[in-house]
Amino acid sequence: QYNGSGGNATLPHGLSQSPDFVMVKTISSNNVNWTCWHKGLTDGTKYVMLNQTDHENGLATVWNSTVPTSSVISFGSDVGTNKDTDDYMAYCWHDVPGLQKFGTYTGNGSSDGPFIELGFKPAIFWMKAATSTGNWIIIDNKRPGYNPDQKTLCPNLSNAENASGGTTNDMLSNGFKVRGTTDRNASNVTYIYCAWAEAPSINLYGAQSNAR
């Protein structure tokens, strides 16, 4: 948690390495935006909003044109990240083998979409088009709990689940298989993703063996 200064500033994140995914939200004003940085975005000026469908946008005052370092995240004067006297929460993650992973994939526009190798069996998987507009998609291993996994949530919408078409996907023992195209697999579009493991333990062979 931090208090905005209205000018260029840095915030120690307390992680053991540079963050790969950052979300920031004011908790003391009526600004509804959740401002996000992801290592799959083009550079330090770029951001996406968790509550919007926009593609990545560039504004130097959001992150002060600076990617997160091993010690701090940077802010400019943007109201979404550093308005004077506003209070904010910043949530930061980095890759941890066998536990969580953040990356990108390129859509192929086919019902037989890309396989994203994670090195673990995911419990929850987020995806968002970075180079095009589209809903955020969240898929987890509880709805319905078996493949094909087709129940989606869109954090940018107030709808019930499956607002984005309910296209099937597979949660696999070592990654995620995208099927269909709606909001997750348009041809030549770059997508960012965030994935967290179902069981972070690693077996003797360095990978999880529990298939779904």
In short:
Helices cover 4% and strands 34% of the residues.
Please describe the topology of this protein.
Layout (H helix, E strand, L loop, with lengths): L1 E2 L5 E4 L8 E6 L8 E4 L7 E4 L7 E2 L1 H4 L8 E4 L3 H4 L4 E7 L6 E7 L8 E3 L4 E8 L7 E4 L11 E2 L15 E4 L2 E4 L11 E8 L15
Antiparallel strand pairs: 1-8, 2-7, 3-4, 3-8, 4-5, 5-6, 9-16, 10-15, 11-12, 11-16, 12-13, 14-15
Question: What does the model show?
Answer:
By secondary structure, the chain is mainly β. The chain is 4% helix and 34% strand. The chain contains two helices and 16 strands. It has helices at 60-63, 79-82, and strands spanning 2-3, 9-12, 21-26, 35-38, 46-49, 57-58, 72-75, 87-93, 100-106, 115-117, 122-129, 137-140, 152-153, 169-172, 175-178, 190-197. Strands 1-8-3-4-5-6 form a six-stranded antiparallel beta sheet. Strand 3 and strand 4 form a beta hairpin. The longest helix has 4 residues, at 60-63. The radius of gyration is 17 Å and the shape is globular. The relative contact order is 0.20.
Order of helices and strands: EEEEEEHEHEEEEEEEEE
Q: Biggest sheet, in brief?
A: 6 strands, antiparallel
Shape: globular
Average pLDDT score:
91
> How many strand segments?
16
| Termini Cα gap | 38 Å
Strand content: 25-35%
Query: Could you name the ranges where pLDDT drops below 50 across 5 or more consecutive residues?
Result: 207-212
Roughly how many Å is the radius of gyration? 17 Å
What is the count of DSSP helices, taking H or I runs of 4+ residues? 2
Strand order of the largest sheet: 1-8-3-4-5-6
What proportion of the residues is helical, as a percent range?
under 10%
Which structural category do the helix and sheet elements fall into?
Answer: mainly beta
